[in-house]
Amino acid sequence: MTAELRVVGKPVRRFDALSKAVGATAYADDFKMPGMLHGKVLRSPYPSARIVRIDPRRARALPGVVCVLTAEDIGRAKMVADIPGQTGQRERRGSETPVLAWDRVRYKGEAVALVAAETEEIAEKALELIEVEYEPLPGVYDPLEALKPGAPVVFEPDNVVARWRIRKGDVEVGFAAADLIIENTYRLPFVEHAYLEPEAGVAWVDERGVINIRVSTQVVEHFRTVARTIGVPQNRVRIQAAFTGGGFGGKEDITVEVFLALLAKHTGRPVRLVYTREESILAHSKRHPYVIRYRSGVKRNGRLTAIQVELISDSGAYPYLSPYVLLYSTVAATGPYRVDNVWVDAVTVATNNPFTSAFRGFGIPQVCFAHERQMDEIAKALGMDPLEVRRINYLRTGDTTATGQVIHSAALLEESARRALEALGEKTPDRGPVKVGRGFASYFQSYGRIMWLHDTSQAWVGLELDGTVVIRCGSPDLGGGQLSSLCQIASEVLGVPMDNVVAYTPDTALTPLAGTTTATRQLYMSGNAVLQAATAVRKVLLDRASKLLEEEPDNLDIVNSRVFVRDEPERYIPLVDLVRICAAEGLPLSNLALFRAPFRDPIDLETGQGDVFPDFTFGAFAVEVTVDTETGQVQVLKNVACHDVGRAINPAAVVGQIQGGSSQGLGYALMENLVVEGGEIKTPSLSEYLIPTSMDYPPTEVILLESGTGVGPFGAKGIGEPCLTPVAVAVANAVSDALGVPFNELPITPEKVLKALGKL
User: Fold this and answer.
1) 538 burial type by CB count under 10 A (0-12 exposed, 13-18 middle, 19+ buried)
2) What's the rounded mean pLDDT across residues 26-41?
3) 526: nearest Cα among 235, 410, 534
4) Burial of 749 from C-beta contacts in 10 A (0-12 / 13-18 / 19+)
5) Dihedral, CA of residue 273, residue 275, residue 276 and residue 280, to nearest 10
6) How many helices, marked H, and strands, marked E, lie in the chain?
7) CB–CB of 7/487 below 8 Å?
8) How many CB atoms are closer than 10 A to CB 552?
9) Could you give the angle at the alpha carbon of 325 between the alpha carbons of 319 and 328, nearest 5°?
10) Alpha carbon distance 364, 222 (integer Å)
């Protein structure tokens, strides 16, 4: 391939851009079928209760009701048992999420029964007619309380879901060598995903007896769990992923798939199920609340000598991905800094609160908040510039992390922080009671999954006889342009214009499995798979063309659907002619590639030492804010994001991702707070749960660094999740700078500002 990139690295229009702009894209809840039934879910009104009895007879007798299912009807043993448990630690049997509760409920909103009816109105009426007798039980709603002896136990024998630890060096020796020890406690709240599209799907049984599910999801591989749960072979369940109207991790776990499959199987008719906004907020996972205790030892010159961290997260009623989220938090707890002596203890705790699981950032934004607030507090105590303190301690290429993993790619921490701060320009002056503050934050974050999980992705790339390209890859597109990036890679390698490349959306019956659209892994994993497959097809083309043009393959290139001699571009073959020759001779014009992520043995569970992730993204976020000391209102004046993305496959898409992640992070900082009291969500709709709009914050200025050192295609690194991570803490640092008062808890509301100033 030529060293000059002609498509990759260019801000080309995404293939799905126009259809989305004009509202032509079909999402999961747009699909309807003749004879379709409407599904509804009966949910528990209690966060902790025993189910005494369930009587669905009145609901079943209602005209228009076709099916009512309880746990008795589907078999009590039916569990969503593919939830990833305890990540190789002790297995807590019985803590898997039941499809439908039968003996007790553990959070408010837990599913108890399913209904399918001719209309939504009839289905809703049927829910009211199902008689459920509950016996309320004591619950536990604070993870700190849940760890105490005598606390109500969500699952026997105790409320500990998972633990992780890191032991590096000798932390006591490190603290003894310190000139100063800084200790703080940080608190992070529940956060709601608030994606535009609620959970939705339609299911039907086809003429072969296959249960088809068209759904909004981040993981089509859930077909295996669905099959096992409803008791059919895996080749009798097919999942088609529609374009997804936002996921952010909230559609990584199973949502409506099993419910749809059960209702379609029992009725033999198509069934549609779409959550209301209130039901979505009630029923899907949340970002983990954390309590983080941080203790840092530092020399007078700013050099860190020791870090001790305690992480406590709220898993909610069921484990889901909490053990994994906690692992990510543990690995990143010390931040992007070189520290010889580290002690991290981490625990995630079961409560009767809404369950928590994946959310954009996957446990890193919480610990980033702690380590970057801590670094600012260290700088303040030493009377040093916050950037200088960080510069002294930043990780560099060749250094090792707290788990002993060597950083192989570029670690552009100092450059990203400096560039972001410089881009803020001159500081805005204070105006009477309105104070101005600046803050920034650095981070490092993985992309790709944990290396002991044998991660793979497949992609098929083929040429049609007219020289157009088809990509088949089971990579769900959440709006981040995942499929469009795959088209760009194939276009670059095969020299075909983007308009002549088509990628099919994930369908477990037709597209090779590509793994989850999570962990910022799809560009890395599926991008490399498409690169491999397209490169194999390119080789076939160039080998055959070399005979026709009487040139070595290395002297040939493909651009704009022409195969030509590099030094004599007038000597060429139209790609369509070459394709037809290859086809007539039986040469392969397609390739199915399997990309394997590097594999490592699991880390040592006693010390946390070992390699965990394939690579890391580094960057910074800087912000200038005003704080009105009379009203407590915080206003964002300027914000700048600077990240090393390795290689921007599509710079326009990358900038869009960073701006979106920045806005979401600003919401995390200043307004988003899912209030949960006694297991009950007190902000149950978007009227109470506030998220940013385009009017709330100025656009984020984006600075892209391209080291070309990532492990993705063409040296790309992942950015979809990392771009959110440093935002909220940069705001907290800016507000603290403006007022001279530490803000160690999110969100930073006007009430909290006034309270910190002693005015409330």
Assistant:
1) buried
2) 97
3) 534
4) middle
5) 180
6) 19, 30
7) no
8) 10
9) 150
10) 25
3-state secondary structure of 58: helix
One-letter amino acid of 506: P
**Residue 712 to residue 225: CA distance in whole angstroms:** 29
Q: Which two tokens stand for residue 262?
A: 């059960």
Q: Are 323 and 313 in contact (CB under 8 A)?
A: no
pLDDT at site 393: 98
Q: Which helix (H) or strand (E) covers residue 668, if one does?
A: helix 651-670
- The confidence band for 390, taking pLDDT boundaries of 50, 70 and 90, is very high
Residue 147, class by beta-carbon neighbours within 10 Å (0-12 exposed, 13-18 middle, 19+ buried)? middle
The C-alpha atoms of residue 112 and residue 684 are separated, in whole angstroms, by 20
Identify which of 600, 450, 560, 425 has the alpha carbon closest to the alpha carbon of residue 516: 450
Q: How far is CA 69 from each of CA 74, 186, 277, rounded to the nearest angstrom?
A: 7, 44, 23
Q: What is the pLDDT of residues 347-384, one digit of tens each?
A: 999 999 999 999 999 999 999 999 999 999 999 999 99
Which pair of structure tokens corresponds to residue 695? 């009017």
Would you tell me how many other CB atoms lie within 10 Å of the CB of residue 241? Answer: 28
Distances (CA, A) of 95 to 221, 341, 369: 22, 36, 30
Angstrom CA distances, 726 to 300, 332, 336, 582, stand at 26, 12, 12, 51
Q: Which amino acid is at 307?
A: I
Q: Note if the pTM is more than 0.90.
A: yes
568: which residues sit within 8 A by CB, 6+ positions away? none
Over 337-376, what HEC string results?
ECCCCEEEEEEEEECCCCCECCCCCCCHHHHHHHHHHHHH
pLDDT tens digit string along 334-343? 999 999 999 9
Give the integer Cα–Cα distance in Å for 247 and 696.
Answer: 22
Tokens 């290429």 belong to residue:
397
Structure tokens belonging to residue 670: 């200043």
223, 235 in Cβ contact below 8 A?
Answer: no
Work out the average pLDDT over 604-631: 98
Q: What's the farthest any 2 CA atoms get from each other in the chain?
A: 84
CB 380: neighbour CB atoms within 10 A?
16
Return all residues near 733 (Cβ < 8 A) that are at least 6 apart. Answer: 372, 373, 376, 386, 439, 440, 441
Is there a contact between 147 and 159 (Cβ–Cβ < 8 Å)?
yes
Given a contact cutoff of 8 angstroms between Cβ atoms, the answer to whether 326 and 344 are in contact is no
The CA-CA-CA angle for residues 214, 220, 221, to 5°, reads: 140
Query: Could you give the CA distance from residue 229 to residue 261 in angstroms, rounded to a whole number?
Result: 10
b/e burial code for range 608-625 (CB count within 10 A of at least 16 → b): bbbbbbbbbbbbbbbbbb
Mean pLDDT score, 396-401: 98
The DSSP annotation for 494-563 comes to HT--GGGEEEEPPBTTTS-B---S-TT-HHHHHHHHHHHHHHHHHHHHHHHHHHHHTS-GGGEEEETTEE
Parallel, antiparallel or unpaired: strands 676-677 and 304-316? unpaired
Label residue 135 exposed, middle or buried (CB < 10 Å: 0-12, 13-18, 19+).
Answer: exposed
The domains of the chain, with CATH numbers, are: 31-137+199-274 (3.90.1170.50), 290-450+602-756 (3.30.365.10), 456-596 (3.30.365.10)
Distance CA 269, CA 265 (A): 8
Kindly give, in sequence order, each residue whose CB lies less than 8 Å from that of residue 692, ignoring residues fewer than 6 positions away: 663, 664, 666, 667, 671
Residues composing the chain: 760
- Between the alpha carbon of residue 122 and those of residues 38, 118, 267, 501, 714, the distances in Å are 9, 7, 16, 46, 55
